[in-house]
Amino acid sequence: MVSTASTPPQKPAAAAPRRKVSRHRGEGQWAKGHYTPLNGNEQFKKDDDGLNVRTRIETIYSKAGFDSIDPNDLRGRMRWWGLYTQRKPGIDGGKTAILEPEELDDKYFMMRVRIDGGRLSTQQLRVIGEISQEFARGTADLTDRQNVQYHWIRIEDVPEIWRRLEAVGLSSTEACGDTPRVILGSPVAGIAEEEIIDGTPAIEEIYRRIVGNKDFSNLPRKFKSAVSGSPLLDVAHEINDIAFVGVEHPELGPGFDVWVGGGLSTNPKLGVRLGTWVSLDDVPDVYEGVISIFRDHGFRRLRTRARLKFLVADWGAEKFRQVLEDEYLLRKLHDGPAPEQPVERWRDHVGVHRQKDGRYYIGFAPRVGRVDGTILTKIAQLAEDHGSGRLRTTAEQKMIVLDITEDRVDSVVAALEALDLRVTPSPFRRGTMACTGIEYCKLAIVETKARAASLIDELERRLPEFEEPLTINLNGCPNACARIQVADIGLKGQLVLDDDGNQVEGYQVHLGGALGLEAGFGRKVRGLKVTSSELPDYVERVVRRFEAEREDGER
Ligand code: SF4
């Protein structure tokens, strides 16, 4: 039971004792009748739906304060509303694994605002910026899942933040937790000249049908999704639990190729194609079928094996499609083609591009997604001053202003550059991403955002002539929030030894990962670790050697 106003906060439900795995006992799938929770997470989800915590936040916690929060809500259900406690300042990375969770908890929250399809009006962006300034000490990071992330949120302010967000059609509903997370969408859906198909109606219908629906609010783990009809493959479809990728069927016309079972973190896996062609109208049904399979058949015994990718690996694409068709959709799907190789390597839409209606969209790059409330408010104003009411966030921690007439392009570019939002960034500014890291994240071992920002500056100074697309992704821990496994240079934060044998912040290096039709994971070179202070020297060496020894066309 969850606590109420009259009951004191209780200890989190203890995890079930660890038992030896046996095939006979199964993986905790509901479809096989395994309804007894096999770990603490499954227990708290069974005790009370995560979505129900909203009422307690509004009626109890926001009034009685942080210390009134039930621990099962604090470290569990609050994620269903996009809220995590942030890391207490001043605790170094060496203590991350050895301290109890409550010793790492600050009394402030990170709040994630979902921006499905990355679609924003200038009014929405202005509200996001105002909330940042009023309630989040100015913080507002752009994430690599098209969200905005605040820090320093007090529980007392959460109901008012929701009221303001929801008044303009935004929310933090299921922005975290074992839920259908934000639906990524092509940031240039509906406007790009080269678009195969606009997936926006499908994203809107999926949101209406699935998000906040208690039929889908207790999944085995998070469920990441993406829909893009762009030939640039601009939503990292390979690493989502489900992705719909625009293709042209020779007889049926434009539609979507379906991928399932992608995901990074530990045991990274690329999604696999089901080999089907799905029309725009059918996308929500197929999404609902796949998320239902995940809910019913997904593994719930171990958190580390609970993502859809493990079920897909166990069944294979053929069986997955057959179960989807025979038991969930009750009809056969068309066979369909694979997407084609994109003509460009950058997928972030940075720069000035013509829209299909003759106007222009302008993509720009802050450093590693770090903006703030003041900047976001200025971007909203700038867009409006130049006749645009629409913006988009990208899956690469960038933003785009839409609908600029030709005569206004130069002044928009100049205004953005004046805010240090680069429209023609160096490849280092353009291709470097970083996760939240030790500044706020309780799992982090090392600093990321500031380190990546200084790395960009240093590489721009040392390698001003370098122009090749290059991705450098930094994570603060072994998780994969900044997608290190699929970067040219992936840097996984950990403590390493310096030349004098002291433990210092550093990174395990992964080299040669990629997304796109040549997608693959970078190779972890045994023993190749760099300290944070050596990082610019190391990356410079890699880049210079690549330039000197690359063969024609080699990436
Ligand atoms: Fe935190 Fe690790 Fe994710 Fe970075 S990769 S945000 S440190 S959990």
Salient structural properties:
555 residues, alpha+beta, six-stranded mixed sheet, five-stranded antiparallel sheet, 15 helices, globular, disordered N terminus, binds iron/sulfur cluster, heme, 4Fe-4S, EC 1.8.7.1, thioether bond, oxidoreductase
Describe the protein's topology.
Elements: H1 40-47, H2 53-64, H3 71-74, E1 83-87, H4 101-104, E2 105-113, E3 119-121, H5 122-135, E4 139-142, E5 148-153, H6 158-167, E6 180-185, H7 200-210, E7 223-228, E8 242-249, E9 253-260, E10 272-278, H8 283-297, H9 308-315, H10 317-329, E11 334-335, E12 351-354, E13 360-364, E14 370-372, H11 373-385, E15 390-393, E16 399-404, H12 409-418, H13 427-431, E17 432-434, H14 449-462, E18 472-475, E19 489-497, E20 503-511, E21 523-531, H15 535-549
Helix pairs in contact: 5-11, 7-8, 8-10, 14-15
Bound molecules: iron/sulfur cluster (SF4).
Enzyme class: oxidoreductase
Region (Disordered): 1-41
Pfam families: NIR_SIR, NIR_SIR_ferr
Protein model, in words:
With 555 residues, the chain is α+β, with helices and mostly antiparallel strands. It has helices spanning 40-47, 53-64, 71-74, 101-104, 122-135, 158-167, 200-210, 283-297, 308-315, 317-329, 373-385, 409-418, 427-431, 449-462, 535-549, and strands at 83-87, 105-113, 119-121, 139-142, 148-153, 180-185, 223-228, 242-249, 253-260, 272-278, 334-335, 351-354, 360-364, 370-372, 390-393, 399-404, 432-434, 472-475, 489-497, 503-511, 523-531. The strands form 4 sheets. Strands 6-7-8-9-10-11 form a 6-stranded mixed beta sheet. A 5-stranded antiparallel beta sheet has the order 1-2-5-4-14. A 5-stranded antiparallel beta sheet has the order 3-15-16-13-12. Helix 7 (200-210) crosses helix 8 (283-297). The longest helix is centred in the middle third of the chain and has 15 residues, at 283-297. Residues 1-22 have low confidence and may be disordered. Residues 435-437, 441, 443-444, 475-477, 479, 481 line the site of iron/sulfur cluster (SF4). This is assimilatory sulfite reductase (ferredoxin). Residues 1-16 have a biased composition (Low complexity). It is an enzyme of class 1 (oxidoreductase). Residues 176-328, 430-555 form the Nitrite/sulphite reductase 4Fe-4S domain.
